[in-house]
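Inverse folding, one chain.
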C-alpha cells in the first residue's frame, strides 16, 4: 500500500512581472464543512491572465487558478453535492468558483454568487498556514459553502475543468437571457471560450446563433460550435437576445443597438475597468428592452454546465479548446503560451 500523502505544493504568485514560485506545505485534514481535493487538472482562465498582467486587481501574494477538476481526498461528514448526493472520498468533482455563507441578505435573495462574505478560489490573499485556495496546486481545500458537482469518467479532464468558471458562467448568462430556445435569434459577441460555449449551448436549445468576432480563426471555431452564421462585426439586424462575452466597449454598444422590440442584452464580458458606454433611455423604454449583468454564477448553473458537457462533449470539439498540458513546474510557460496569438482559449496544467 502506498504511503499517505502528507504534503502539497502550490504556485505562489507575488505580483505583476514576477515568476510563479512553487512552495511545499503540510497537508492537513479538512475541518468542519471542508473538503480536501487533489487537483487532477487546472486551466488558465482569461481572468488569470488579466490578473498577472495587472489588468485587474487581486491580492498579492496569492494562489491563482479557479478552473479545475479533481478527486475528493477527505471530507467533513454530512456534506452534499448540488444534486443532494453525499460527498464521498474518491468522487471526481468540479467545484464552484466561490463559496457562499448561505445566510446573508444576498444569499437569502438567491444570489449566493454575490455573498457578503464571498470566498473566491484563485482570488484570495495568501494565508501561509492555509494556502491551498487556488487551482494551481496539487490540492485545494474547499471552504464551507462551496458547491460541488460529480463529473462522470467519460468527460475528459480538459473538458471538465472549465466547467468551474467558463461553462457555468455561460449557463448563468443563458438563464439571465430567459433560456433562449427554438425561434430565438441570438447574437454572441466574442468567440473566445465563453462565446463558443454559448454558441454550443444556445444552438443545442434550438436558437439561431450569430457570432461576431474580428478574428477569422475564431469565427471558424464558432461555426464548429453550432453558430448558424459568423461575422466580423455585429450585423445590422434585430435580435431577441444579445450576449456580450468579449468585454470590448464597442461590442457592448453593438449588443445594445442590436436588440429587437422586447429583446434582452446580457453583459458578462466586462470584468475589467474600461470606458463607460452610453445608453439611450428612450430606445430602451420604447423597445421594452432588458439589460442584465452576469458575474459568477449560482450552484444550479454549475450543475447545468456539467450536465451539458456530459451530454454534448462528443458533439462539439471542446477538447480542442485546451492546449498543453503543462506541469505545475512549468506554470510560467503555460501562462506565456496562453497569451500567444492564435493560442487555444485555455492552457491545461496537470499538477
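Residues assigned per position:
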Amino acid at each position: 500500500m502506498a504511503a499517505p500523502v502528507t504534503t502539497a505544493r502550490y504556485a505562489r504568485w507575488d505580483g505583476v512581472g514576477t515568476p510563479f514560485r512553487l512552495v511545499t506545505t503540510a497537508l492537513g485534514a479538512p475541518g468542519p464543512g471542508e473538503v480536501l481535493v487533489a487537483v487532477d487538472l487546472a486551466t488558465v482562465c482569461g481572468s488569470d491572465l488579466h490578473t498577472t498582467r495587472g489588468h485587474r486587481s487581486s491580492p498579492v501574494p496569492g494562489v491563482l487558478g479557479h478552473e479545475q477538476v479533481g478527486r475528493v481526498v477527505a471530507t467533513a461528514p454530512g456534506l452534499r453535492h448540488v444534486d443532494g448526493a453525499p460527498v464521498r472520498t474518491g468522487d471526481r468533482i468540479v467545484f464552484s468558483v466561490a463559496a457562499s455563507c448561505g445566510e446573508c441578505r444576498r444569499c437569502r435573495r438567491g444570489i449566493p454568487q454575490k455573498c457578503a462574505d464571498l470566498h473566491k478560489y484563485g482570488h484570495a490573499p495568501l494565508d501561509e498556514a492555509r494556502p491551498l485556495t487556488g487551482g494551481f496546486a496539487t490540492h485545494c481545500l474547499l471552504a464551507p459553502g462551496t458547491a460541488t458537482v460529480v463529473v462522470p469518467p467519460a468527460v475528459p479532464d480538459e473538458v471538465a475543468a472549465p466547467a468551474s468558471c467558463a461553462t457555468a458562467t455561460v449557463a448563468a448568462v443563458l438563464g439571465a437571457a430567459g433560456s433562449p430556445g427554438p425561434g430565438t435569434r441570438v447574437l454572441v459577441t466574442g468567440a473566445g471560450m465563453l462565446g463558443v460555449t454559448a454558441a454550443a449551448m444556445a444552438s443545442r436549445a434550438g436558437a439561431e446563433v450569430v457570432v461576431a468576432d474580428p478574428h477569422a480563426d475564431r469565427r471558424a471555431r464558432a461555426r464548429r460550435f453550432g453558430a448558424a452564421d459568423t461575422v466580423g462585426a455585429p450585423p445590422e439586424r434585430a435580435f431577441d437576445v444579445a450576449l456580450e462575452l468579449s468585454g470590448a466597449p464597442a461590442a457592448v454598444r453593438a449588443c445594445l443597438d442590436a436588440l429587437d422590440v422586447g429583446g434582452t442584452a446580457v453583459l458578462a464580458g466586462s470584468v475589467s475597468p474600461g470606458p463607460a458606454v452610453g445608453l439611450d433611455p428612450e430606445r430602451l423604454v420604447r423597445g421594452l428592452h432588458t439589460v442584465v449583468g452576469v458575474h459568477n454564477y449560482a450552484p444550479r448553473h454549475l450543475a447545468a454546465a456539467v450536465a451539458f458537457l456530459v451530454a454534448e462533449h462528443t458533439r462539439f470539439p471542446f477538447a480542442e479548446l485546451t492546449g498543453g498540458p503543462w506541469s505545475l513546474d512549468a506554470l510560467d510557460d503555460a501562462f506565456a503560451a496562453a497569451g500567444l496569438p492564435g493560442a487555444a482559449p485555455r492552457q491545461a496544467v496537470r499538477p
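The domain at 168-293 is CATH 3.40.50.720 (Rossmann fold). Residues 299-312 form the longest helix (14 residues).
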